[in-house]
Design brief:
Layout (H helix, E strand, L loop, with lengths): L6 H8 L9 E11 L2 E12 L2 H7 L4 E5 L9 E7 L2 E7 L2 H14 L4
Antiparallel strand pairs: 1-2, 3-4, 4-5
Helix pairs in contact: 2-3
Length: 111
């Protein structure tokens, strides 16, 4: 089961969440070439969030619930109660459900 954000999710979350909330990093390196010659190596980190770090970034009343389905079609629901409303996201694993919730709350200007 997925236990941390992938690179694409991490790049999106780096625009939404404080970098300090990440608890891991992807190390990335690129070779810069100019005129066919190696000019330099560029090294950089991309912040990455574990499930625990994602959960800590969400409001206190967040729940992750495993839907009762067969193991091949597991679904996870992330719910947040805000002002007597319940906001939910669904995904195949809890990390994706939390990432979707963070993006949803950000788009609603609630995070």
């Amino acid at each position: 089961m997925k236990s941390y954000t992938d690179i694409e999710q991490s790049k999106k979350l780096a625009e939404i969440l404080p970098i300090e909330s990440a608890d891991m990093y992807y190390w990335c390196g690129e070779e810069l070439r100019i005129g066919g010659y190696k000019a330099m190596n560029i090294d950089y980190d991309i912040p990455c969030w574990s499930l625990a770090a994602l959960f800590n970034a969400l409001p206190n009343d967040t729940d992750i619930i495993k839907e009762e389905t067969d193991t091949e079609n597991e679904k996870y629901m992330c719910t947040v109660g805000i002002n007597d409303d319940i906001i939910s996201t669904f995904a195949n694993n809890p990390v994706d459900a939390c990432v979707e919730m963070i993006e949803k709350l950000h788009n609603l200007k609630m995070l």
